[in-house]
Amino acid sequence: MTIDLKTVGLVRSGQTILHGITARLDERRIGVIGLNGSGKSSLARLIAGLMQPTSGSILIDGLDTKADAKALKGRTGFVFQNPLNQIVLPIVADDVAFGLTNRGVPRKEAVKQARAMLDRLGLLSLAERPAHELSGGEVQLVALAAILVMQPGLIVFDEPTTALDLRNARRVAAAIDKLDARAVVVTHDLALARSMDRVLLLHEGRLHFDGDPAEAARRLEALAEVAP
Ligand SMILES: Nc1ncnc2c1ncn2[C@@H]1O[C@H](COP(=O)(O)OP(=O)(O)OP(=O)(O)O)[C@@H](O)[C@H]1O
Questions:
Q1: pLDDT at 9
Q2: How far is the CA of 42 from the centre of ligand 1 (A)?
Q3: CA angle (149, 150, 151) in 5-degree steps
Q4: For 176-214, how does the pLDDT look when each residue is reduced to its tens digit (9 = 90+)?
Q5: ipTM surpasses cut 0.90
Q6: 10 Å Cβ neighbour count for 80?
Q7: What are the residues whose beta carbons fall under 8 Å from the beta carbon of 31, sequence distance 6 or more?
Q8: Residue ranges of the chain with pLDDT lower than 70?
Q9: Which of 8, 13, 15 to mutate to test the pocket of ligand 1 (most atoms within 8 A of CB)?
Q10: Of the residues 13, 40, 161, 186, which should be mutated to test ligand 1's pocket, given the most ligand atoms within 8 Å of the CB?
Q11: Looking at residue 196, what is its pLDDT?
Q12: Which of 40, 59, 171, 211 is most buried, by CB atoms within 10 Å?
């Protein structure tokens, strides 16, 4: 799967949030880092097709996120920064099955697939638990299960380890590492960023650096020092 960013620009409420971002991404794990407000979440949402660019275009395997939105539906998953917003049904297994039933898979089969996915992530013990009782780390992993069960080719994560302790952050990082799907990961977690194949560093809506993860992390540290 290739993500082709072609001079992607985004203007919101008269403010330019992204300035002509161009990159052709073929790697399996793409990190996106930058200071607060640099445009990371906006870029992630554009790649996932949740918003449309104001100028330029984004092609996923040659399909335009704007013109071919219908064809791309279901191919890309998005894991939100606060995955509690993503949970719609009270019991974990039903929630993980929700996307499948929505797609027309019979409920029994959908729940079976959901339980298998929870099992794969080592979360089967959570299947019958009320979702609102889960810890932050468990919610993050359940949200990931709900996306994975849909078998998207690309998963976009918006700060997946924020608010997680080291153990759960590592579990999420390991789950991302094991994915069959491609991943775009927005993160402030430099250990997670360093584990990616390629990292985009955004600064004030511009692509400040694109390439080696360790170098991207070093450049971010340099930006953090000079930032007011
Ligand atoms: N709908 C909007 N209207 C106006 N400005 C917006 C809108 N959405 C985002 N912005 C602004 O765009 C800039 C980039 O926001 P974005 O959420 O993409 O940054 P980010 O790099 O993900 O930040 P953070 O690390 O704080 O989550 C910010 O200055 C933000 O205030």
A1: 98
A2: 6
A3: 90
A4: 888 889 999 999 999 999 999 999 999 999 999 999 999
A5: yes
A6: 20
A7: 185, 186, 187, 192, 193, 196, 198, 199, 200, 213, 216
A8: 226-228
A9: 15
A10: 40
A11: 96
A12: 40
State residue 228's pLDDT score: 57
Task: Show the tokens assigned to 171.
Answer: 């579990």
Q: Is the CB of 110 under 6 A from ligand 1?
A: no
pLDDT at residue 136, as a whole number: 80
Residue whose structure tokens are 């960023």? 193
Q: Does the CB atom of residue 195 touch ligand 1 within 6 A?
A: no
CA of 19 to the centre of ligand 1 (A): 13
Ligand 1 mean position to 109 CA, how many Å? 40
Ligand 1 center to 12 CA (angstroms): 9
pTM, entire model:
0.90
